[in-house]
Specification:
The complex is a heterodimer of chains A (115) and B (887).
Chain A (H helix, E strand, L loop, with lengths): L6 H21 L2 E2 H11 L8 H13 L3 E7 L5 E7 L1 H26 L3
Chain B lengths: L5 H20 L4 H21 L4 H26 L2 H19 L1 H30 L10 E7 L8 E2 L3 H10 L3 E15 L5 E8 L3 H5 L5 E2 L4 H6 L3 E4 L1 H8 L9 E4 L2 E8 L14 E4 L4 H4 L8 E6 L5 H18 L6 E6 H6 L1 H34 L1 H9 L4 H35 L15 H33 L11 H37 L9 E5 L8 H16 L4 E7 L10 E6 L4 H4 L3 E7 L3 H5 L3 E4 L13 E5 H7 L9 E4 L9 E7 L14 E5 L12 E6 L7 H11 L6 E5 H44 L1 H9 L4 H33 L11 H28 L3 H6 L2
Parallel strand pairs in B: 4-9, 6-8, 15-20, 17-19
Antiparallel strand pairs in B: 1-2, 1-10, 1-11, 3-4, 3-7, 3-10, 5-8, 6-9, 7-8, 12-21, 12-22, 13-21, 14-15, 14-18, 16-19, 17-20, 18-19
Helix pairs in contact in B: 2-3, 4-15, 5-13, 5-15, 5-16, 6-11, 13-16, 13-17, 13-23, 14-16, 15-16, 17-23, 17-25, 17-26, 18-22, 23-26, 25-26
The chains are: A alpha+beta (115), B alpha+beta (887).
Chain lengths: 115, 887
């Protein structure tokens, strides 16, 4: 039985969702490896997603209707599954970005005093 | 996380729906997912290579990637579907395989469960219809009936009340919002077609508001109309369909009832009914004449009342008893009490008890079935120990194992329930006839309530027979390890459990058998009861005499019609009585013997019957002493009376009452003094199964001081009674062509109908008891023979140490019989308690408890001996050499 992991993963999942959505919004449709590579690159190698984390997250976002996945071909002419934001995904991204900014603002104010 | 947007919830819902779908359809196939992950791994390895890592490092990266591929696959599978649902599905499929692997065990289990669950479901549908479903009145829980309570004079506790009591109680009580009364009524419909006698009831104007009953069409009549004596009626839905073709303008029409015009003011809905029978077609106002409201001796009204909020039925009972005692003392009567009973109980009558008893019996049968299954599962758990141990070894936790076992039980139970529904339907058809005549007829159906009940019973059964075997089965895995060997016992704990199961099922079986025996005795007693008459070839019918209100004309008409009936070919003799025999008719009146003071006499009642002189000979009644009425009993102010044996024994035990005199009905100076001229042997004229009551018969030529009219005709025939019905009708109509003729039936019909309820009870309970006996013996046999197999090794040791086969036989038989005896003791005690609670089903008869319990015990003991002896014999024949090697 699974899916009963502690809440730490929940938080991670939340941020991971946000990161995936933002990546796809910036770069357009990508396959899984490209998403992971992009996140690794952006974080200067600090964020190394393994498959067991990334792919279930993609599947979950797809199940929630935020992403749409479809098979296509890479530049190297390889068959790969590409993920793109749906309209709902874009709305959700906007909402989560806002929430994140607000939360970040609160934490910022808390840690360093009001700006 | 800040999550309070409905959209977010919708998305999560969507995810779960997709996942549920994923579980059911495996959408996105494995290959698809694997392909995606493979690409990822390949790209990772390529990337590593491109960065110029050493080949072995690149290989390591590839290996890690491959490893995480497997891991990710698992995570994806979990995300794709609902893992617990998947697991459940696997468990169910596994259980199904187990069930198919042991077809004999499974079939037995499913069949027993089907019987148990099916019968319980059907029984519950009857209980639901009679005892649970809402009655067709507003807040029916607050409705009660109020009765005269004559228990102090040795009569049955409850008695119809009088109109005077209704009026006074209604005025003085503080516990009811209102009280209504209803009285037997005649409604002979004439006008178009043959005259028809409709079942009718007179009710007070507030009857409708007390019940909270509304008409389907039109209105109900009011208290003012009742008081003014307006001729208005409310008709039943059935009559509306039958006589008015459901015409919407039936309301407002005028019909002729009892030769008088009545206006139809309302039609009741189909569901409406009220005491005493479901088939009342006409409700008319009582319009009690003033003298009836002053008459404290005329017991023929049902009183229904509505409790005030916050008044309990006990409080109402106390107040009404006190009120009745006070009022009856003031009104020159010996104080008499009153009783208050819930309406629902009155409507259900004896059915109440019999349904509860039968439901308990079916529950016991199901429990026995569960006990057997628990035993079988325990046994199987032991024989499956190797499989269980293996599964525990490869990582199945204890909880997992218990879940798995329970799911097996649930699957069995669910299959049993499905088969049970098939059994339930025909049983329901049979049970429909148990619904008492006081309530609306029902069609028992498998509605959602029944299905829910069935599911609940199946779940409860699965837990009952599955839980202990599951827990003990999972325990095996804990301490056995992979140590080889299917032998040995699973410890004293499970022995004790199995032993208590045997005691339990023996107890239940013997209790059911004993109670069944009690009912059987009662039924036989009822069947062999001397009715006091020769009932074969006696036709009865009712000729309401409302057209003959004057005494002289009535006497003349009755005699004339009887004469015409006697002239019909095939008629041997004919007579008349105020109520057809064997039908409940409790009109009772006060009387005073010449030797009694008024104070002594005030509390005693006797049933009143007015007959023609042909009545007793026609029925074949017997005399104890004296004479029957004859042609010499003409109109006189010194009339004759015949009393029954109950009356004679009440007042003149051991001596002859002939020549004794009494007053009846009224005690004034003008009241007749009746002289007892004969003592008739008991006639069960209140109904086959009813108690006898003191009864006074008067001849109709002398009964001008009675309100009883000889409207019930009895005819003895030399041919099949049905053959002369038409001729009899015409004989009556030759005297008065407008005379209604109603309720034509033979005495045999009446007897059969009255015995149908006790015979059904006996049959059902008997069937359940036999089922219980069968299941219990199978259970006993199963457990003991299993014990022999389990202990083969031990037997070998014993025999090797010098025990002979007789010893072994002895050991095994003794164990089994000791358990059986313990069960018999418990069961006998249970039966004794049950017998106490179901006395109403014995119809006043005292069945022999010792005989019933003794027979049941002997029967079960015999079966148990056999069930013990066969395995014990097998044990005693075991070859010690083989036994010692037995694993």
């Amino acid at each position: 039985m699974s899916n009963r992991e502690p809440s730490k993963t929940d938080v991670l999942q939340g941020t991971l969702d946000l990161m995936v959505l933002q990546t796809l919004d910036t770069l357009g449709a990508l396959h899984g490896y490209a998403i992971a590579a992009r996140l690794e690159q952006v974080s200067n190698g600090a964020l190394q997603l393994n498959m067991g984390t990334l792919y279930p997250a993609l599947m979950r976002l797809e199940q929630r209707g935020l992403l749409r996945g479809a098979w296509g071909t890479t530049e190297a002419n390889r068959k790969a599954r590409f993920y793109a934001l749906t309209a709902a995904g874009r709305r959700q991204l906007a909402k989560e970005k806002q929430a994140w900014d607000r939360m970040a603002g609160i934490i910022q104010a808390l840690l360093h005093g009001p700006a | 996380m800040v999550r309070h947007d409905p959209q977010g919830h919708m998305r999560i819902l969507r995810e779960w729906v997709v996942r549920l779908w994923g579980t059911l359809t495996r959408r996105r196939l494995e290959d698809d997912l694997k392909e995606e992950l493979r690409l990822h791994a390949e790209l990772a390895v390529e990337e590593a290579r491109r960065r110029g890592l050493a080949p072995d490092a690149a290989a390591r990266t590839a290996a890690v990637a491959a490893g995480s591929q497997m891991h990710a696959m698992d995570a994806l599978r979990d995300q794709r579907g609902l893992p617990w649902l998947d697991a459940l599905g696997r468990d169910v499929r596994f259980a199904w395989r187990q069930i198919r692997r042991n077809p004999v065990f499974s079939l037995i289990a499913i069949a027993t469960l089907a019987l148990g669950i099916g019968v319980n479901t059907a029984m519950f549908s009857a209980v639901d219809a009679v005892l649970i479903r809402p009655l067709p009145y507003a807040d029916a829980g607050d409705l009660v009936m109020v009765w005269d309570d004559n228990s102090r004079v040795g009569d049955s506790d409850r008695f119809f009340s009088t109109p005077a009591e209704w009026s006074e109680w209604r005025r003085h009580n503080t516990v009811f919002t209102d009280m209504a009364a209803s009285q037997p009524g005649d409604a002979a419909l004439s006008g178009d077609g043959e005259p028809e006698e409709l079942p009718a009831r007179k009710v007070t104007g507030n009857f409708w508001s007390v019940l909270g009953a509304r008409p389907l069409l039109g209105r109900v009549f009011t208290e003012e109309e009742d008081a003014r004596g307006n001729r208005v009626v409310v008709i039943s839905h059935g009559l509306w369909l039958r006589r008015f073709g459901a015409a919407p303008d039936a309301v407002g029409r005028t019909i002729t009832l009892n030769d008088k015009p009545y206006e139809v003011v309302g039609v009741m809905p189909r569901e409406f009914y009220f005491m005493p029978a479901r088939d009342i077609d006409v409700w008319m106002p009582t319009s009690f004449p003033p003298e009836m409201l002053r008459h404290w001796g005329w017991h023929d009204v049902h009183i229904v009342a509505r409790l005030k909020p916050s008044v309990t039925i006990e409080q109402a009972g106390e107040e009404m008893a006190a009120l009745s005692l006070r009022l009856s003392a003031e009104n020159l009567m010996m104080p008499r009490s009153a009783a208050v009973t819930p309406l629902r109980e009155e409507l259900a009558g004896k059915t109440y008890t019999s349904l509860i008893v039968l439901l308990a019996a079916t529950a016991a049968v199901l429990l026995i079935a569960c006990v057997n299954l628990a035993n079988l599962l325990m046994a199987r758990g032991t024989s499956r120990r190797r499989e269980i141990t293996v599964r525990a070894a490869i990582g199945a936790g204890r909880r997992r194992l218990i879940t798995q076992f329970l799911i097996e039980s649930l699957v069995l139970s669910a299959l049993g329930a499905l088969a049970g529904l098939v059994i339930a339907v025909p049983v329901m058809r049979f049970l429909e006839t148990l619904v008492p005549e006081t309530m609306a007829a029902v069609r028992l159906t498998l509605d959602w309530r029944m299905l829910a009940f069935c599911a609940a019973v199946a779940l409860a059964a699965a837990l009952t027979f599955g839980l202990v075997p599951a827990v003990s089965g999972s325990r095996i895995a804990l301490h056995e390890g992979l140590r080889d060997g299917g032998r040995g016992s699973s410890g004293p704990r499970s022995h004790r459990f199995q032993h208590s199961l045997i005691v339990l099922e023996t107890a239940l079986a013997v209790a059911l058998l004993a109670v069944g025996g009690l009912l059987l005795q009662t039924f036989q007693h009822l069947r062999q009861l001397d009715l006091g008459i020769r009932g074969d070839r006696v036709l009865t019918l009712v000729t309401p005499l409302f057209r003959y209100p004057e005494f002289d004309r009535r006497v003349a008409f009755v005699n004339a019609q009887l004469e015409q009936i006697r002239a019909v070919p095939g008629v041997v003799s004919a007579g008349a009585i105020s109520r057809v025999p064997l039908t409940v008719n409790d009109q009772a009146t006060f009387y005073r013997l010449a030797s009694q003071t008024r104070a002594e006499a005030r509390d005693q009642v006797a049933l009143s019957r007015v007959v023609t002189s042909g009545y007793f000979p026609t029925l074949g009644a017997q005399l104890r002493e004296g004479r029957f009425f004859g042609t010499s009993d003409r109109y006189s102010d010194a009339p004759a009376a015949i009393v029954n044996e109950s009356f004679a024994d009440r007042h003149f035990p051991g001596r002859s009452p002939l020549g004794e005199r009494f007053q009846f009905g009224t005690f004034g100076p003008k009241a007749y003094w009746y002289t007892i001229v004969g003592v008739a042997k008991e006639i069960r004229d209140r109904g086959v199964a009813e108690e006898l009551r003191p009864t006074i018969y008067r001849v109709h030529e002398q009964a001008d001081q009675s309100w009883d009219q000889p409207s019930g005709i009895v005819i003895r025939t030399s041919v099949e009674p049905a053959a002369i019905v038409a001729a009899v009708r015409h004989a009556i109509w030759s005297v008065d062509k407008n005379q209604p003729v109603a309720r034509v039936q033979t005495i045999d019909d009446i007897v059969t109908r009255q015995l149908s309820v006790p015979s059904q009870n006996t049959m059902l309970l008997g069937a359940f008891a036999l089922l219980a006996l069968l299941l219990a013996s199978l259970g006993l046999y199963g457990v003991l023979s299993y014990a022999v197999t389990q202990r083969t090794n031990e037997i070998g040791v014993r025999m090797a140490l010098g025990a002979d086969s007789a010893d072994i036989m002895h050991v095994f038989t003794r164990r089994g019989l000791a358990l059986t005896l313990a069960g018999l003791g418990v069961g006998a005690a249970v039966a004794l308690i049950a017998a106490r609670l179901m006395t109403t089903l014995f119809y006043g008869f005292r069945p022999d408890y010792l005989l019933a319990a003794g027979t049941a015990s002997l029967l079960l003991l015999a079966v148990a001996t056999l069930a013990c002896a066969i395995p014990a014999r097998r044990a005693s024949r075991i070859d010690p050499l083989i036994a010692l090697q037995h694993e």
